[in-house]
Amino acid sequence: MFSQEINNIKYFTDDFASSKPQLARIKIVSNYGSDNVVGAVARALLFNRLPEGESFETYCVDAESPVGILLRSKPVKNAFAIMKCNETDGYSIDGYTEQPKYADYLKSWMTAKILTKDEDNSVFVFIKDIETRKVHFTMSLFPAYYQKLFKHENVSNLTELEKELCKSLIMRTPNRFTEIMDKMGEEYGFKAEYTTHLLRNFTKNNVKNLIDNAKRERDRAQRVLEDNLAEYRRLFQDMNEKTMRYELLCAKPVEEDTELADFFSHNKTLSLVDLHDSSLSFIIDTKLEWFDVDFYEHARDRGEIFNFDAYSGCTTEDKKLLMDAIFSNDPQFAIRMCAFYEIDMSTASVGVISGYDYGDARTKKYIPNPHLQRHACLGSYREPIRENLRRNNIIGAIQQCAASAGSVNLQETDMTFKPFMASVFKSNNKILVDNEGNEYTVKEAIQKLKETK
Asked: What is the 3-state secondary structure (H, E, C) of the chain?
């Protein structure tokens, strides 16, 4: 018998059956893989034999699958089920009779157990080590399983074509089988209807494909348009910014910039590092002024904020004492900090460098701003600085840099703040200053706080 899977038996497919209720009442619930032989043969043989108003179901399932277990526990009437199993022994169904003569006929090619219930027109075939050709061989006995439907007065009433169909299922190739299935469909008068069905579906499917293609093309065009509009908006915004910058620069007379020179010479917290074409780099020496007091108090009450390294002998109470005096609405001490910046007038840009080397002389007095030093990130300060540069207000940009230099984001507790406080508490230098400008080491500041408690 042939082992090739047959999956397009045209007159007996679900697609064609959907247009013929008499054919559709023979339901193919499940197939053996992609092979449609079981359901198609049932439809071909039962089309004119199934009593009016009744339906029929075919199954190919694993005996131990949820569907297989359910079928065995609650068998349905008018059904044919092929059950895959590892061993046929042990399977029985209440009310069903074993048919050893059919199993004997099949045993040259397989081990099978057939259970039938004539009054219900229901058959179960358990097949060990199932494969496609065994399924086909099993179907060659289909009329024998259903005595009520295929015998009249105890004599077989199979037509010659139906007999040929059963014989074709044990042949080595599927050619004869497919030839007979086509003949049976034509004898049932399906040919003209099938052609009409195909052409109707052809038109329907092509219109659907045309609609789907048109929708895809429309959606693609819409995406391209939206992308272009977004790009145009970006270009217009860029042009407006450059136009505004151009007009602002033109409105200010081009002359020697004594204002910037005076600003640097009178501001002792500024140190010029380098000048090159339109770029200017500098260091700002400042002290900690901008921080979130509420967040500090909330973190302090949880106690987690004091978990960082410090000088030998420093206790948590020492940390809390000094940090309360620093991170307060009325601070007694401030941490001296420094930060490096590079601004470029031609591009209205500002940059910082992580890990910048400030030199020993400066780091003996100042702690580098932790967020800039560790992450080279200006956060929310970047845009105000750039806006000043676009307006050619270089002094305003430097003042915004100074504000960022004296700020610490306490919410970056583990990533930034704790390492920063560790560098403060491990320093032996006078990096703290009180409100009168007096300088202190961390130990000296803690000692003074203890003395004045």
From this structure: CCCCCCCCCHHHCHHHHCCCHHHHCEEECCCECCECHHHHHHHHHHCCCCCCCCCEEEEEEECCCHHHHHHHHCCCCCEEEEEEECCCCCCCCCCCEECHHHHHHHCCCCCEEEEEEHHHCEEEEEEECCCHHHHHHHHCCHHHHCHHHHEECCEECCCHHHHHHHHHCCCCCCHHHHHHHHHHHHHCCHHHHHHHHHHHHHHHHHHHHHHHHHHHHHHHHHHHHHHHHHHHHHHHHHHHHHHHHHHHHHHCCCCCCHHHHHHHHHCCCEEEEEEECCEEEEEEEEECCECCHHHHHHHHHHCHHHCCCCCCCCCHHHHHHHHHHHCCCCCCEEEEEEEEEEEECCCCEEECCCCCCCCHHHHCCCEECHHHHHHCCCHHHHHHHHHHHHCCCHHHHHHHHHHHHCECCCCCHHHHHHHHHHHHHCCCCCCEEECCCCEECHHHHHHHHHHCC
